[in-house]
Specification:
Blueprint lengths: L1 E3 L7 E7 L3 E10 L3 H20 L6 H26 L8 E2 L1 E7 L2 E7 L3 E8 L4 E6 L9 H10 L5 H11 L8 E2 L6 H5 L25 E6 L4 E7 L1 H4 L4 H10 L5 H16 L4 H4 L27 E7 L14 E4 L2 E6 L2 H8 L2
Antiparallel strand pairs: 1-12, 2-3, 2-13, 3-4, 3-5, 4-9, 5-6, 6-10, 7-8, 7-11, 11-12, 13-14
Helix pairs in contact: 1-2
């Protein structure tokens, strides 16, 4: 795992949960703050295990969709309470992507909301040719298919104007996210006491949710040809292609591989602005990349790259293969501490 901070507050959150016969990975790419991504990392894994236990300790795609929906419902309720009881509107303009993966008894399940991405590297054929597969779509407005999806969801008004307003104002870069309640729930826009900052105003009136939290879901039984999975937040994939990342992992030593990928992304970000990596890492962090005139302020890190999270999982030493018995641990992407995973309680309850 590797993480690089660009904003004043680290908006990316990530986790790896290791069980005896299962593995969970989550990447939560925060937007306009870390409130939504912190909410997800605090709740999603425990909720996922609860649903698996209710399903007779079995996993399926429906559970993935349900747990993402729970995060959406829970965080938007948190935003509503913050507004109604504490007169805070900030939570209404905060969101996060949500990329989760669980390998459960040899089957891989992946769900994604936002512009994070997971790619599977396999070696196939006599020559062990590297095959790279992006398992779930990323919902970035840079993707022409996502632009088309957005306009098709809103056929009853000038959708070009509405999309243009979201894109040009830089309100959000993805069509799907957890949170951003203001663009999903009329409760916020119809209350007179809810004041929308000028920077957030989209073409009124509110008629239906502008954004979605519907995840893209993928599953497959892992085979002996599957070698590794690379997980990354949007800040990583904006700078490195699927093929480039997979080639590096396939041909490089495993030690500190995620750090190597993150460094390559930083070098790319620096090169786009014609500076060196050593100069980039000296630039201070900030949560604002625009000046009063709307031009990017190149005196801050966020003008060169977003927060970056990279996780690499190798698949050739799965539990109970070649005597491998993993420790039940929990790892966070921006914290070197190793903690006991919630998998421990899950297994204890399953054995009762």
């Amino acid at each position: 795992m590797a993480a690089v901070q660009a904003n004043k507050d680290m908006e990316d959150q990530s986790q790896v949960e290791v069980g005896t016969d299962a593995l969970f990975v989550g990447v939560y790419d925060g937007h306009k703050g870390d409130a939504a991504s912190i909410y997800i990392i605090d709740h999603i894994f425990t909720e996922l295990l609860r649903m698996i236990q209710q399903n007779n300790n079995s996993m399926n795609e429906i559970i993935l969709r349900q747990v993402v929906d729970q995060m959406e419902t829970g965080f938007n309720e948190f935003a509503r309470i913050s507004f109604e009881q504490h007169h805070e509107v900030q939570k209404s303009f905060v969101s996060s992507g949500c990329l989760i993966c669980i390998i459960w008894k040899g089957t891989l399940f992946v769900a994604n909301v936002g512009d994070s991405r997971a790619i599977l590297g396999s070696q196939k054929g006599i020559g062990k040719r590297l095959v790279v597969k992006q398992m779930v779509s990323d919902h970035s407005f840079l993707n022409p298919d996502i632009k088309q999806e957005f306009t098709e969801l809103h056929p009853d008004y000038n959708n070009r104007s509405r999309y243009h307003s979201i894109e040009v104002k830089g309100l959000i870069e993805t069509s799907r996210c957890i949170g951003y309640a203001y663009m999903k729930n009329a409760l916020f826009t119809k209350r007179r006491s809810f004041e929308i900052p000028l920077s957030e105003v989209v073409t009124p009136p509110f008629t239906r949710p502008l954004l979605s939290s519907q995840p893209e879901v993928f599953s497959r039984v892992l085979s002996d040809s599957d070698r590794f999975i690379i997980f990354g937040s949007g800040g990583f994939w904006k700078l490195i292609s699927n093929e480039k990342a997979a080639r590096v992992v396939n041909t490089s030593p495993r030690d500190r591989i995620a750090e190597r990928l993150a460094m390559l992304a930083l070098e790319k970000g620096a090169g786009k602005r014609r500076i060196k990596y050593r100069d980039l890492i000296e630039i201070p962090k900030s949560n604002c990349i625009s000046g009063n005139n709307g031009n990017q302020n190149y005196g801050f890190r966020s003008a060169y790259h977003d927060d970056i999270t990279v996780i690499v999982v190798y698949l050739d030493q799965r539990p109970y293969r070649e005597g491998v018995t993993p420790k039940i641990n929990s790892y966070a992407g921006y914290d070197y501490a190793v903690q006991q995973s919630e998998f421990t309680n899950f297994y204890n309850n399953a054995n009762v």
